[in-house]
Amino acid sequence: MKIAVDAMGGDFGSSPLIQGALQALRERNFNLVLVGNEQIISPLIPAQYKKKVEIVHCTDFITMEEGATSALKRKESSIYIAMEMLKNKEVDAVVSAGHSGATMSLATLKIGRLKGISRPAICTLMPRIDFNKSLVVDAGANVDCKPENLFEFGIMGYEYATTILNYPKARIGLLANGEEECKGNEITKIAFELLKKHPNFVGNVEGNNIFDANVEVIVCDGFVGNVVLKTSEGVADSIVFLLKKYIKSSPIGIFGALFMKNVFKKLKKQIDYAEYGGAPLLGVNGNVIICHGKSNAKAMKNAVFQAILAIESNVNDRILKALEEYKI
After folding, report:
1. pLDDT exceeds 90 at position 95
2. Residue-wise over 50-66: b if at least 16 C-beta within 10 A, else e?
3. Nearest to residue 124, comparing CAs of 247, 306, 256, 304?
4. pLDDT per residue over 192-222, tens digit each?
5. CA pair distance 138, 150, nearest whole angstrom
6. Are 273 and 292 in contact (CB under 8 A)?
7. pTM of the full predicted structure?
8. How many CB atoms lie under 10 A from the CB of residue 145?
């Protein structure tokens, strides 16, 4: 099993990305390929790992400020080279915390889409009140969608939820402004009719259902999904901030917090994106994991674990079979 990590693209530089990849290497058996500037990467690798890690040298990388289409011409950039390696079967997966638009564009054009998939989608995990996870598809890859795209997102999300998350019968919900069948816009209303083909489609769901354990797969376009994702992150950060502020505002609060330390630790673990690692790009003919630009070492380690799960589960084969069964 060979996994390529784009070691250049994160907001905090190469160090946390390499640290996380090496932590994953300590816990799982795979071959690690770090793509990027060898002069930066090599000093960050401890001596005991020098023979276990392959470095593919390149000096160019796509910054967050650049347009996604610029990546298509930058053949010496780290993400371009990593995708070339995946295309040529030199690696089994690519993990990147770099420019997500560049990663998606290159994955779609270099590796290609699965047969029957018109648009790939990012799926992201969200915390639930039962301590499990729900899956939002799409979380940002496609801001404008057709009903057929939403139908495909539902199929891909279901197969990922049953294969990777081990839900025996994942329920699919279509995100709308009300649970009634008549709610939604023209696109979601048509998508509703298409998704009826799937026996596990439960109908429209609202934003609160992402977290209340009433559904496992939430289908929406990338515009709505990304707003949901960023809003949820903001709410979680605000709650943690306010808790700390209120606790520190009085001696009684500080004293009481000592007894709640384990509770706070569990809460942080449940809402921390680093615990999930990265978001798989579903619908491309290969295994691609897109990470948060602010990924720390823990997030990168867990993103590599997600890549390993995707390789071992052959989730793409399951998606292809399901598309044949429920084709429109």
Report:
1. yes
2. eeebebbebeebbeeee
3. 306
4. 999 999 999 999 999 999 999 999 999 999 9
5. 8
6. yes
7. 0.87
8. 26
